[in-house]
Design goal:
- InterPro entries: LysR_HTH_N, LysR_subst-bd, WH-like_DNA-bd_sf, WH_DNA-bd_sf.
- Keywords: DNA-binding, Transcription, Transcription regulation.
- It is built from 11 helices and 11 strands.
- It is of the alpha/beta class.
- The strands form 3 sheets. Strands 3, 4, 5, 6, 9, 10 and 11 form a 7-stranded mixed sheet that branches. A two-stranded antiparallel sheet has the order 1-2. It has a two-stranded parallel sheet with strand order 7-8.
- The chain is globular and about 70 Å long.
- The model has no long low-confidence stretch (mean pLDDT about 90).
Length: about 290
């Protein structure tokens, strides 16, 4: 079994198409097919079912995919370790961030990073906070940035920045909302697993409001979709001041005089995996949190 066979297998599994995988890896279709056939014949196990012009993983293939990815991740880490001996003149930064930080907080920092280390390739993945933590845990990312604390003993979690949640609606608030008003309001929310939703629910509990009893009209998967729905009058929400700032300035949204307090952004690193020098350089550039 070779790393090339594993790369081809993973590429085919992710695309569910041999030709598309071969094209992505710059190998011939026959070479890709031969690599899959060699794995199946050597171990006497079928990894794919052929369906029309495409393929789909068998149960054995799905199990093998996890192991193949793990092997390739370790091989990539070994290769990166050698590259980084050249003082960050080569290599990559595998970064994952939650939506708010990726869209509104990180770009200026990554611009400074690019200026300082122009030969480091930045690979940024985006998900909600739970998804970002999972990718760091699994070794798919060297460093993560999320919008709330993460309960995972395998990860080092430390504050690196902050923002504030703002309660907003399409029309002005007649008076400062109290707990009773918040409990009666119709809400537009981010999905569970989102750091924004977790921070809002914590803030509401602190005000004596049970998040489970709220009238939630819509649950949407991005800050932008939540903001747009609220601008259209679907309900109220609380989003990062970074997200709603332009809409407040344009008069499309109105903020309530409600202070939910500061919300921290956290950096994530795996405690036991190899510490990427590219990620170390990013942490140094961000600097210690001075809240």
């Amino acid at each position: 079994m070779t790393l090339e066979q594993l790369r081809i297998f993973v590429a085919v599994a992710e695309r569910e198409h041999v030709t598309a995988a071969a094209r992505a890896l710059h190998v011939s279709q026959s070479a890709a097919s031969a690599a899959i056939a060699a794995l199946e014949e050597r171990h006497d196990v079928r990894l794919f079912n052929r369906v029309g012009r495409g393929v789909e993983l068998t149960d054995a293939g799905r199990i093998f995919l996890r192991e193949a990815r793990a092997v390739l991740a370790r091989a990539a880490a070994a290769e990166q370790a050698l590259d980084e001996l050249r003082a960050l003149t080569r290599g990559s930064l595998r970064l994952v961030a939650s939506q708010t930080t990726a869209a509104y907080w990180l770009p200026a920092i990554l611009a400074r990073y690019r200026a300082a280390y122009p030969r480091i390739a930045i690979n940024l993945g985006i998900g909600n906070s739970d998804q970002a933590a999972s990718r760091v845990h699994d070794g798919d990312a060297d460093f993560g940035v999320v919008e709330g604390p993460v309960d995972d003993p395998a990860l080092a979690v430390f504050p690196i920045g902050a923002d504030r949640l703002q309660l907003v609606a399409a029309t002005p608030f007649a008076a400062p909302p109290n707990a009773a008003w918040l409990g009666r309001a119709r809400w537009v929310m981010r999905e569970r697993g989102s750091g924004t939703r977790a921070a809002l629910e914590d803030a509401l509990r602190g005000l004596g409001v049970d998040p489970a009893a709220l009238d939630v009209a819509l649950v949407l998967p991005s800050n932008e979709s939540v903001r747009t729905a609220v601008e259209a009058g679907a309900g109220v929400t609380a989003l990062s001041s970074l997200v709603v700032g332009p809409s407040l300035a344009a008069g499309a949204l109105h903020a309530a005089p409600t202070d939910f307090g500061a919300r921290l952004f956290y950096g994530l690193r795996h405690k036991e995996r190899y510490r990427s020098r590219a990620a170390d350089a990013l942490v140094e550039l961000i600097g210690p949190w001075k809240g």
